[in-house]
Design goal:
six-stranded mixed sheet; 340 residues; single chain
Amino acid sequence: MTHEEHHAAKTLGIGKAIAVLTSGGDAQGMNAAVRAVVRVGIFTGARVFFVHEGYQGLVDGGDNIKEATWESVSMMLQLGGTVIGSARCKDFREREGRLRAAYNLVKRGITNLCVIGGDGSLTGADTFRSEWSDLLGDLQKAGKITDEEATKSSYLNIVGLVGSIDNDFCGTDMTIGTDSALHRIMEIVDAITTTAQSHQRTFVLEVMGRHCGYLALVTSLSCGADWVFIPECPPDDDWEEHLCRRLSETRNRGSRLNIIIVAEGAIDKNGKPITSEDIKNLVVKRLGYDTRVTVLGHVQRGGTPSAFDRILGSRMGVEAVMALLEGNPRYPSLCSKPLW
């Protein structure tokens, strides 16, 4: 960065305000993104606000919206989850809730919003932006904001950062939290493999992903699983017979264990769910193998973020702030992704 570019960046945010929130399911690396938004925002001269508890905090206002400082994010980079909190918010799904959220932003002079979350969170943000003019009009008519406040807040810039362990969002190669979740899953699979081999067991491991099989697919490739079930590729109608034959062949070649990975949204070709319990019962009934089910659950979201997610979240946060401060009413809502 040249001296002129450095000076321009330091004045880009003067007179502007940015709010940052995390919404939906937490993901490792969200704190890195929040930290980057705060520090880059302050560096440019903008005021930056935390919105605690996601959209619920935006709707409720009050102490949920607090101005951030440079020091307030100094210990966030290595922490998992989201320090500023997240919550599922039914209120924001209703127009009345979004009206309250708009009021809270206008009263603080905030016209730039950074949302870190998954598909539902970013869809809600886009709806909020599209309604912004009408929401301001309603607040003016009700006498809750002045004409001057409405003019200063005439448009709302929104940038979305995809924070989701599922890696289920189009337009970005890797979402914040996916790499860390994969590391957590692999640690567990490796640990289970040792006990499975000791007792000649079959283990059925269910991983998260909702309607996306990325975690299950990459896990199965990384651990050398015998079989994987993912929603994007339902098995053939005779999958039960094929699966049992594959497991038998593996045992006959001298293997002492079998590993089957199941995405939580796995289905057959008729759309019927394929559950980990269904698979266990099948293996026990047809093959008589000692079979156990392990549902990894929220342990996949826990723990510290990987180096990749810390850098990914930080780079996305930087890009988000620059996009917000350079934005104007003609720009569409943006989904920030790193420029590798």
